Structure formats: C-alpha cells, structure tokens
C-alpha cells in the first residue's frame, strides 16, 4: 500500500483524488493546505487526516507527497518532503526556474528518493497508443511541432493571474507546450519569444518558437484569447493532429504522405491523473528514483526553455 499525503486543496487536488481512487494499493492518509478552511472540507469529502502544518504532514505515516500548491511554493514543499524521507510528485512547473529546480533534484538524488514532475499527457492511453502505433507505421523523423492553448473564460480572481503566486500564461500553460516540443524534438537550442502583459504583471499572451536538436516548434499560451488547444506534429512521411484538448489527449488523426489516414480514439477515465499516479506508484514499488518518461533531464529542459522565454519578455518573479 502506497500511503499519500497531499499539500494543497485546490482544484487539481480534487482531480488527483479522482485518479487515486482508481489506483489499486494507494490511499490518502494526510492533508495540508495553506488555507485551513479547505482542509476540513477536503478531508470530509475524501477521508484522511487534517494536518496543521506541512511539517506535520511530512512526518506522518506516509510514503509519498503530492504537491498541489501554486508554483511559488513547489520547491519549498518538495525540499521539506524529501528531507523527511518522502517521495515527491510535484505539480508542474516543478520550480519557478532551473536555478531553483536543480537543488531540489540534488536532494532527491542524494537521499535516493523518487522525485517526478506532474506532467500528465504522456501517461494517457491515447498518447501511449500513439507512440506504440508509430513504431509499426512511422511518420518518419519528426521535424516540426505546433501547439498551444489560450483560455479566455477564467475569472480574473483566478490564481493564474497572480504575479505573487507565479501565474502567467508561460508558467501555467506554456509548460505543457514545452513538454510536447522537447518530447518530440529533443533538447532546446534556441528560443524566440514575444509576449504582452496584463494589469497584474503577468503575461496574458505569449508566443514562442524554438529550435531543437531535431527541428522546430511554434507554441503559444494565453488567457485573453480563445485558442483551439490542438497540436500538430510533422514528420517526413506524415503528420499527426492530437485533437483538443491535446494535454488531456483522447483522439488523434495521422495523415500519411501516401494518402492513408489512421484515426486513434482512446477515452480516459477519472480525469486522467490516475495513469500518472499509477506510474509513480510502480516506480516506488520497483525502487526507482527517477521516471524514464518525465525524467529529471526532461524537467530541466522544460523549465530552462521557460526561463529563456521569460527573460526575453522581461517577466521576473520575487527573488529573481
């Protein structure tokens, strides 16, 4: 039995619990939030024990901590949990910058503990099936990725608009696009970014194009335009459309140069985080300290891309 503690009781933690209920041999034990009123409601709904502090939570009888807070505190709680001997699954982005992430990874390595960034798309059935199908019917070397999302219906009191809490379109949405580009094209070599700011000091819309080891990507993220939310992946023998919302992938179309078309349809259950949780639990059971899918190197490459993108538009957060 993998016993979990959760830090943070916002919307993503509720989705996490949807997924956890679908994972055999995993259960919730402890809960903490910076807002005490949310902890009692969460425990009433899902069970577990309410903790008065993060320190109390990491010292409780748990094996792993899911960090579901906003990015401003990801590194703080990751270090706290790792130093207490707990494995950590931390929501994306795992830290506000590469300079902040690297010490977290070093602590995980030094203590022989599992640390993984919560990047859900590659664990969905559709994404896995797509990768497997391409082994038998390839589209050739991939050289171009185009993806993005802009969500225009968020309430202006949403934390994504908070500069203090490390909001903004690059950090909240662009991290997904960074994953897709790195996953299909390899490490980033060059970044070119444009962005415009809103009244709270965060980027309301950013567009960034990147050069990678194996090709180019054009990516966007925003909060005040209604974007489509699909993804295009192009190879020499065909192209793939992962239909919206590509980060919760359920359907893809592969168009080949010779004219044949393949449709893949793989629905997901329980909000989709169950697949990521299952992977994480299996890593613990097998004594692994790093995911082969969302490796430390992948996390470093994603946040390094956003570091450069933020630098180019002049977006800085507290302490930088």
Defining key terms:
8-stranded mixed beta sheet, 27% strand, 6-stranded parallel beta sheet, 9 helices, 320 residues, alpha/beta
In short:
This protein has 320 residues and is of the alpha/beta class. It contains nine helices and 14 strands.
Overview of this structure, please?
There is one protein chain. With about 325 residues, the protein is of the alpha/beta class. It is about 35% helix and about 25% strand. The protein is built from nine helices and 14 strands. The strands form two sheets. Strands 8-9-10-7-11-12-13-14 form an eight-stranded mixed β-sheet, with helices on one face. Helix 1 links the parallel strand 1 and strand 2. Helix 5 runs antiparallel to helix 9. The chain is globular, with a radius of gyration of 19 Å.
Number of helices: 9
Shape: globular
**Average pLDDT, all residues:** 97
Question: What's the total count of β strands?
Answer: 14
Uncertain stretches: none
Strand order of the largest sheet: 8-9-10-7-11-12-13-14
Give the topology:
Elements: E1 2-7, H1 11-20, E2 26-32, H2 36-46, E3 49-50, H3 54-58, E4 64-67, H4 74-83, E5 87-91, H5 98-111, E6 115-118, H6 125-136, E7 142-150, H7 169-185, E8 188-197, E9 203-212, E10 215-222, E11 231-235, E12 238-242, E13 251-256, E14 261-265, H8 273-285, H9 296-313
Parallel strand pairs: 1-2, 1-4, 2-3, 4-5, 5-6, 7-10
Antiparallel strand pairs: 7-11, 8-9, 9-10, 11-12, 12-13, 13-14
């Amino acid at each position: 039995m993998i016993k979990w503690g959760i830090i943070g009781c916002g919307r993503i933690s509720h989705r996490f619990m949807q997924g956890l209920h679908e994972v055999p041999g995993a259960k919730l034990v402890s809960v903490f939030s910076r807002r005490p009123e949310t902890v009692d409601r969460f425990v009433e709904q899902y069970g577990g024990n309410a903790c008065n502090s993060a320190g109390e939570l990491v010292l409780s009888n748990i094996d792993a901590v899911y960090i579901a807070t906003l990015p401003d505190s990801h590194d703080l709680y990751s270090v706290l949990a790792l130093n207490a001997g707990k494995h950590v699954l931390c929501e994306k982005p795992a830290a506000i910058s590469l300079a902040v992430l690297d010490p977290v990874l070093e602590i995980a390595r030094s203590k022989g503990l599992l640390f993984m960034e919560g990047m859900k798309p590659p664990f969905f059935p559709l994404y896995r099936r797509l990768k497997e199908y391409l082994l038998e019917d390839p589209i050739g070397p991939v050289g171009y990725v185009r993806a993005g999302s802009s969500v225009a219906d968020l309430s202006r009191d949403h934390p994504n608009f908070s500069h203090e809490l490390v909001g903004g379109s690059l950090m909240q949405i662009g991290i997904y696009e960074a994953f897709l580009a790195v996953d299909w094209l390899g490490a980033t070599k060059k970044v070119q970014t444009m962005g415009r700011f809103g009244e709270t000091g965060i980027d309301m819309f950013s567009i960034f194009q990147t050069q990678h080891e194996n090709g180019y990507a054009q990516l966007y993220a925003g909060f005040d335009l209604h974007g489509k939310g699909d993804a295009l992946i192009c190879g020499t023998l065909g192209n793939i459309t992962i239909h919206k919302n590509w980060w919760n992938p359920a359907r893809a179309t592969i168009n080949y140069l010779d004219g044949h078309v393949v449709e893949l349809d793989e629905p997901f259950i329980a909000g989709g985080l169950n697949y990521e949780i299952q992977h994480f639990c299996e890593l613990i059971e097998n004594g692994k300290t790093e995911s082969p899918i969302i490796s430390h190197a992948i996390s470093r490459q994603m946040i390094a891309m956003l570091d450069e993108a933020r630098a180019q538009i002049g977006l800085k957060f507290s302490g930088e």
